[in-house]
Structure formats: structure tokens, C-alpha cells
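Quick one, T. Sequence first:
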Amino acid sequence: MILKVGNLQVTEEEFESRIKAIEGSGGDPDKEETSAKSRRRLGDDYASVLMLSQQAVANNLESSPEVAQQLAIARIQTLSDAEFAALMRQAQPTLEEINRYYSAHLSDYDEVRIRRLFIWRRRGNSKDGTVLSTQAARAHADQIRKACASGTSEQQLSEDLRKAEEGMLDPAPLTFSRGELPPEMEKVAFALKPGEWSEVDDTPSRLLLIQLVSSDRKQLGQVSSRIEKSLQGEKMQALLDDLKKKAGIWMDEQYFGTAAPVTGAQRRNSEPQQSELQESALKGGSKNEDERQK
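C-alpha cells:
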């Protein structure tokens, strides 16, 4: 026993487990830097909570309609959170499922390193009406491309274009995964061979070309967390849908309104709804470690 409030005795194990549930990450008695002062503060706080709860029972407050309703809601929420967490564990995909998904969607994890070249056809505010023709813009782009091929520094070419306000060249390649580029640019980028250039767009204001510097594919270890989260979300949604059917849920549409239709894409890109308490219960879950490079 490390704490006593009235006739209630609290062991060290009970205190540490309950204080974490009450305060979350607000304090950690095991940390050396917070061991003395913070542990005393937590002890005082917990003793006050126990004292006040005992006094509430003595004053028969748990029988009041307001408190009774809050206790009932808290019980429902706690049970709901516990079942949600249990379902999430049930929906945890296996390593075999993750590997199988990766193998079936290899192209989804392709990525390209590209360099973009913009040639401004409309200079500055174009108050003088100077606009490069498509032919002139392409000729200028060819000069830049030939300079790159001859070994001129892309950094220098980029700086020269910027100073002359003639366009923009990426001094270093940018990395994009599938789905991160505009559709037309992505189609061109993933079809190019390393070193190749291609015109992507030609508008009254600028000409855009891209060069494929290199292409690669993310390995399973780089995307396993993302796949795991996606599969877990799909399996969890299926479990929730099944439970809803079995529970026989009915809602008065005159009061609640009609449910918006959910498309397949929305379902794949969405995660099961959960409360804040459910989110906290799942903090130990996997996190997406895949970061986009730009």
C-alpha cells in the first residue's frame, strides 16, 4: 500500500495504472527527472479524486438524474472503446497478407525522379505584348536541354533562367510516387526512359517539359506500414458493417435524414469512425512511416 483515503487502500500497481488512465501522458512516475515532484503532485491529485468521489457517494450524488446519465454514458463509451480496440486487433493483417498485397500492387509503389523545365512564353506582366511563339519556346528549351547534355551545371542553368526571367529549371531532381503528379504528367513521366525529355504541356503562358532522371520501386519494408494500415482499415470496416447488419440498426430517416451513398473509392480511402477515447486506445497501433520526398 502506498496511499490511503479513508478506508480505501491503494497499492503501487493500482496507482500507476489508474493515474495513467486518468492523466494519459501527463506524467510518468518512472522518469527520473519527474520522479519526486511530479509523483507527489500525481499522488495529491489522485487522493483528491478519490476523496471527492467518496464524498459524492456519501451525498448520494450518483442517484441524481444528471450524474446517473453521465455514468451511464461513460459506461457505454468505455465498453464501446474496448470492443473497438478488440476489433482492431482482430483486423490486424498478417505478414502474409501484407506480402501478398504488395506483390499484387507492385506498380503502385513505383516512383520517378524527374527534372522540370518551364519556358515562359509570356514575359513578366507582358504589358508590351511580348509573347514567345511555341516554336521559339521549343527552340529555347532545346538549348537548355543541349546545355544539360553537354555537362553544364543544372544549378547554373537554373540560376541563369531565373535571373533572365525566361523560365525555371529544377536544379535537383524531384521524387514522385504514383498518384502524386497531375494525371497527364504522371502518364508521361512513368513512360519515359532515364535521360529522356518530353513535352508535357504548352499554354499561352509557358511551355513545360520534364526529364526522367531515374525510376525506382519502393521496397516492401518502405511501404509495409502503409499497407498494414490500409488492410486493417478495410478489414475493420467489413467487421463493423457485419456487426451493423446483425445488430438490426434502424434510423428514422425523417429525423436523421438519408445516408449519403458511399462509393468504392471513398470506402477504400476512408477509415472506420472512432471516438477520441478509441483513438487513445489505439495509440500503440502502426504508423505510416512512408514519407514523400520532394
